[in-house]
Predict the structure.
Amino acid sequence: MTSTKLKQQPNIQLHKHVISDMVLVATDQLLLSIREQCKVILVNSESGQVLSEIVLQDTPGYICMTSASQAAATFLNKTIQFVQVNKTTLQMDSTTNVDVNAYGIASYRNHIVVSYIHPPGVKIISKDGTTIRNLDNTTAGRDVFKLPRCIATTPDGSIYVTDWGTGEITRLDSSLTILQTFSGDMLNDPHGIISLNTDLLIVCSSYDYKVVLIRPSTNRMTVLLDKPSGKDKPRYLCFCKEQKKLYVAPQADKILVYKLS
């Protein structure tokens, strides 16, 4: 990907739906959490047409797909809401209580990994909310995290966590042992993060209005997009391998679309 170019495609306009996270559901579908309206919506990734929506019991934060037909959204009331995605229809599923106010969320080997900030840390939990592994500043014995946010997982079992407070990305294994940290001038206010494979990440450097490509094995960082949305900071990412499309969303009512060429 470092030798390819990104060609900008028409933006997806969402008509006053301000995004608070997004995840790819299928080659032509995106699932979005809309914080201000307390809902999640399923949209066509070509037209932006809303296919289905659900109003939730509380304000949703971040979302992930836990399977091909199930999504999960975090709430700041110590719960996680599961949603069934059936082709073009959304349906409310179960709610799970957890012992922290979860922020970032990702699927991980039939479990879920979440970030939280009181105290700052990361947990691997089962879908019923049971803690399997936990890492925070107390258990680590040092200040690992300040404001951990978004999470990406890879096929080899790595977990990557962006941190607003430290300006770092932390790589963990399945035991939540720290393997690597990444920082630098390109990673001011790292936020949304996705993995393309075991050794290729894309992250939003929100403060610098950049989207950055990282190769963990070499610590090499490359700016993919510089100020892609002008005045709006890039926050959230999706990538469709089949269509070779990168979706970049600021916290606004649009999604920027780029195609690899």
The mean pLDDT is 92.
